[in-house]
Amino acid sequence: MNKSWWKIIPVLLMAYAIPMSFAGDVSVQTILHETIRNLYFHVTMWFSMFILFIVSMINAIFFLRSGNLLYDYRSEMYVRTSLLFGFIGIFTGMIWANFTWGAPWVNDPQLNGAAITILSYLAYLVLRSSINDAQKKARLAAVYNIFAFTLMFVLIGIMPRINDSLHPGKGGNPGFGSYDLAPAMRPVFYMSIMAWTLVGVWIAQIQIQIKIISQKIKSEQL
Amino acid sequence: MVRLITQINALLWKEFVLEFRNRNALNGIILYVFSTIFIVYQSFRVVPDIPVWNALLWIIILFSSVNAVNKTFQNDGMGRQYYLYLLANPVAIILSKIVYNVVLLSFLSLVSAVFYGIVLGNPVHQYGNFLLVLLLGSIGLSSLLTMISAISYKSGNAIGMVAVLGFPVMIPLIITIIKASKGVADGLPFNTYSKYLLTMAGLDVVVIALSVILFPYLWRD
């Protein structure tokens, strides 16, 4: 793999975004105070998770169209990486919720949606591990991936707008954007999203390489 | 298109004839529902609280529909599967299975709601709207579970696979059903819960469309 030049981008972005998220200017608000700095970590985790799930679903579609197992490896590894991001997102969210809402877990549609998303992708991994034949495993997993992603999209996109939510921008609460999100925060926020997403792609790439090599070794042993 | 409809008709006829010939699925599932409701009755006697009444009813319907739909693909043995594979369009197969399960589950949820209402008290007064909720809910549950049971069948049908795969993706539907049904049971005006009915109808369409698109990939071996 000589196409590794892009890995310098997340490194540079991180080098800017992480110090800025601890030391940069933030808009201090009544309840949030300095915890708004968690925006750079918690919210970016969900954005990257979602982007990686989309990548995984697109690979699942490509697999169903072509039958090439490479797409299946990609689809699986992107799911695994986004699950890691999802767990970190829940964890950072719990820290933030503990400060602002007074409890690490509250009954909020957004939180339930996150828990359900993670459950359905864990079910995806259970489904994969229950089948031996590689082609069949890939096909069923791809079908379930597309099915679950579409319903998750409905869940995360529509449900919080029907129910009331404690999150900004939902259930009559103003979004962060309509407050004065200090102008200095925006570039850091967008750069963090890009940086973490690219790190996720990086992790997934390494896992895909490992998978391909281990499959090659297995087929040589036979 | 005409061929598709003839195929669906023939397959549906097959499903219903098979069902009436041995009646095991229907009788078993109705007995299951009755005994579950009776157990609930023995443990609660009276359910005064509308949210609890509502949640219990839908949990009973949810579990009995998982049991009812579980066997959709198992009932056709290996030989018949190949026969259908050679003869029929996969779209016709999934649509006929969905229609059959919609009929089965609408009947099942109606029977359970009536029996449940008789035994545990009935707070519902808007019967027409309640029927609408039952129907939309059954369509959603049955189409979703048909697809999940197809995936589970193809994966070798490990015990509990339908529940593991189905419950996470079913939660949005269940939340909407319970909200709509609670609105009806509380006797609220129609426009306060009509948005849930719309969401349910939308989810039904999405699930059926996804099944039609994805099932052909599951079906070929």
Describe the structure.
The complex is a heterodimer of chains A (222) and B (221). With 222 residues, chain A is an all-alpha fold. Helix content of chain A is 72%, strand content 0%. Chain A has helices at residues 8-23, 42-66, 69-100, 109-129, 134-162, 185-221. With 221 residues, chain B is mostly helical. Chain B has one domain (2-219). Chain B is globular. Chain A binds chain B through residues 64, 112, 116, 119-120, 123, 126-127, 130-131, 136, 139-140, 142-144, 146-148, 150-152, 154-155, 158-159, 162, and chain B through 147, 151, 154-156, 158, 161, 164-165, 167-169, 171-172, 175-176, 179, 195-196, 199, 202-203, 206-207, 210, 214, 217-218, 221.
Overall body shape of chain B: globular
Largest sheet of chain B: none
Rounded to the nearest angstrom, the distance between the terminal CA atoms of chain B is 25 Å
Total beta strands of chain A = 0
Query: Number of DSSP strands of chain B?
Result: 0
Helix count, DSSP H or I runs of 4 or more residues of chain B: 8
Shape designation of chain A = globular
Helix and strand layout, with pairings?
The complex is a heterodimer of chains A (222) and B (221).
Chain A (H helix, E strand, L loop, with lengths): L7 H16 L18 H25 L2 H32 L8 H21 L4 H29 L22 H37 L1
Helix pairs in contact in A: 1-6, 2-3, 2-5, 2-6, 3-4, 3-5, 3-6, 4-5
Chain B lengths: L1 H21 L1 H21 L5 H20 L8 H10 L2 H31 L6 H28 L6 H26 L3 H30 L2
Helix pairs in contact in B: 1-5, 2-3, 2-5, 3-5, 3-6, 3-7, 5-6, 5-8, 6-7, 6-8, 7-8
Keywords:
heterodimer, A: 222 residues, mainly alpha, globular, B: 221 residues, 0% strand
Could you give a quick summary of the protein structure above?
Chain A has 222 residues and is mainly α. Chain A is built from six helices and no strands. Chain B is an all-alpha fold.
